[in-house]
């Protein structure tokens, strides 16, 4: 095995156990995901050798987090009594307004947001008092303040808004992993059963909420569309807000974003191959979403179109609240409208890209995604 660039799962588990001083990694099928991920990184990866320490460090950190979660449960059995209401889940294709919608709803204190900073290290669970000075929050905010202007133009960031559950799913090693060039892993992930993953997800969410009210959770993750049934099994009362946009805009925009998230490559990265992979990946996601929505029940889904968010943001927010049967207080409504004014499209700069640089064309994408466009009556953009 000496010719292997990356460690084996057993090596990583041993390193994490030594670092964490514990051995109970908790429930679920995370070992399978870790194995597939490392194999895909070995086979599909194009990363520069200088990235190895950081990439493996992230995987080790997630394993140590698992150890700490189990230790916390062992020492604090009252966590098992934590209640979860809802949750409300915002999903759909990426680049369709999921972040904007989530950031706006996150301004409402009746929601418990799944913040990025608490996911990176869930133990100890946050408490309301002194939360602004929580070292995890301070470090997370500082890291994002150092982002480039290009990055800020591509993606809105609010430190206390609900964010993708990338880290929690990462701890289960059943996350989408659109942060690494692991096409083989993603193909496996799209088609694998995430029932145990979302059971573990709930375990971590209960811990995070155990000392920090309220208990009406707000989730946001475009990748949830791939496994809606597994998610709804873990959260039987969940209601879904799904966002939509012309895939001819979505696919190149998301490919461009992903190309900036991947760590540096050893040579020239094949952007055409990446464009093809992203298009196939998202296509399978919307196919799965349509099938699984029908089985879950369409009454649990509200569809929001990107054009509505852009042309009538105030009306769209009111429609969401009406559908959820939640009160939108005048104070919260004003804070949301203020946010809308400050974050209109282009306010932080313009995200520049073309479909052609990723080997894509608007015509081909719309042809491939024709079933999706028809199913949700998605408007084409100029």
Automatic annotation (TrEMBL):
Domain of life, source organism: Bacteria
Molecular-function GO term, any one: transferase activity
SUPFAM superfamilies assigned to the protein according to its UniProt record, in alphabetical order: P-loop containing nucleoside triphosphate hydrolases (SSF52540)
Keywords: Transferase
One Pfam family named in its UniProt record: Sulfotransfer_3
Keyword Transferase attached: yes
InterPro entries the record matches: P-loop_NTPase, Stf3_sulfotransferase
Protein name as annotated: Sulfotransferase family protein
């Amino acid at each position: 095995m000496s010719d292997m660039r990356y460690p084996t799962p057993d090596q990583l588990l041993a390193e994490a156990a030594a670092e964490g001083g514990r051995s109970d990694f908790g429930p679920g099928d995370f070992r399978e995901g870790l194995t597939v991920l490392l194999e895909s990184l070995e086979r599909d990866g194009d990363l520069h050798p200088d990235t190895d320490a950081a990439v493996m460090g992230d995987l080790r950190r997630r394993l140590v987090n698992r150890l700490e979660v189990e230790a916390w449960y062992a020492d604090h059995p009252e966590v098992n009594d934590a209640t979860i209401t809802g949750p409300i889940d915002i999903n759909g294709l990426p680049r369709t307004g999921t972040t904007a919608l989530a950031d706006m709803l996150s301004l409402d204190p009746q929601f418990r947001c799944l913040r990025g900073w608490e996911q990176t290290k869930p133990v100890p669970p946050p408490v309301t008092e002194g939360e602004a000075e929580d070292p995890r929050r301070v470090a997370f905010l500082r890291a994002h303040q150092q982002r480039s202007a290009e990055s800020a133009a591509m993606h809105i960031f609010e430190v206390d808004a609900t964010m993708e559950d990338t880290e929690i799913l990462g701890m289960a090693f059943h996350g989408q992993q659109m942060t690494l060039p692991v096409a083989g892993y993603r193909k496996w992930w799209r088609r694998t059963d995430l029932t145990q993953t979302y059971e573990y997800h709930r375990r971590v969410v209960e811990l995070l909420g155990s000392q920090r009210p309220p208990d009406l959770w707000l989730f946001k993750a475009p990748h949830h569309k791939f496994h809606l049934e597994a998610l709804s099994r873990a959260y039987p009362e969940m209601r879904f807000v799904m966002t939509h946009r012309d895939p001819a805009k979505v696919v190149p925009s998301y490919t461009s974003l992903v190309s900036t998230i991947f760590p540096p490559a050893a040579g020239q990265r094949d952007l055409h191959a990446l464009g093809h992979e992203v298009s196939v990946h998202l296509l399978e996601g919307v196919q799965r979403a349509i099938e699984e929505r029908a089985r879950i029940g369409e009454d649990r889904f509200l569809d929001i179109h990107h054009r509505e968010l852009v042309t009538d943001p105030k009306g769209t927010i009111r429609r969401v609240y009406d559908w959820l049967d939640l009160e939108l207080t005048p104070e919260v409504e004003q804070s949301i409208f203020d946010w809308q004014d400050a974050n209109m499209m282009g306010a932080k700069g313009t995200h520049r890209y073309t479909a052609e640089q990723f080997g894509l064309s608007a015509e081909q994408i719309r042809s491939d995604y024709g079933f999706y466009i028809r199913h949700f009556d998605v408007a084409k953009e100029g």
